[in-house]
Amino acid sequence: MLTPTYLTETPFLNEEGLSKEIETGLLSSSAHISPKFLYDNLGSHLFTAITLLPEYYPTKTEKSIFEKYRQEIAEDLGVKKGLIDLGAGNCQKAESLFKSLLPSSYTAIDFSITYLEEILPQLQNKYPEIAMFGIGMDFSKSLKLPDAVPKSSQNFFYPGSSIGNFTTDEAQQLLKQIKSELREGGLLIGVDLIKEDKLLLDAYDDPLKLTAAFNLNILRVVNSVIHSNFDVADFKHHIKINHKLQRVELYLEALRDTTVTWGDRVREFKRSELIHTENTHKYTPESIKNLLASAGFNSFTIWTDPKNYFALIYAV
Fold it and tell me: What pTM does this model have?
């Protein structure tokens, strides 16, 4: 029986670089922390729980598209190719395609290699015929597949509208890198479409406060990386809907004046001051096609749900 291969020699997760990135964000006039720091082991589990909430429509809507168009998706992507899963998380979305795509190999890429080490062995046991690889990588900075990943034809898989976490320029750069890594395949990408405010507010500030816990956990991650003294009790989850930029913005709002220190650095937060932690852009079918075209993709198949909440696109 095969066992997963883990590739942790990637340079993208060096502690010094991550510490510098966090420090730069905290010391900016408008404090911010990259959303990738939301996804440590605990954060990944919290996000999995969020996807089960009735208010969180993206996951269940995307799943319904997979189920309805499973055969068409398989015909477009082709079978027995490698599948590269970006931001794999619990790998369940990719697994839902295994029976129709029959992938020759599966490469799960995630910011949290610890989470992959927990998830992948279970998946490998279910599908011993598929060669599996787990890669800890910050592909928001650079995407380059290690030589150990099979060089056969392959498809990239980027579900969940995670592309919406990036600015337009950042998203374009990532998509260009995906395009350059493709071999006789394409990109299957999920994107969240523009919709009414109430649906967005319910999805990103749920009554159970799981999203709040997920957002606040980033302060614990920061503490572990730069050895700061953030107190989670000093902040609360806060969201804004930015209609001009067509995105939901996540913040942490200071509940009181507080001082955070690490090493010889100090950052004072006034009551109501915000730390920006995540953007999640929403698209129209035309705007996402234009973004993909700007990165070098020139052929698109689009599947949506009946309410046009979400779109799944295969781009080559």
Answer: 0.91
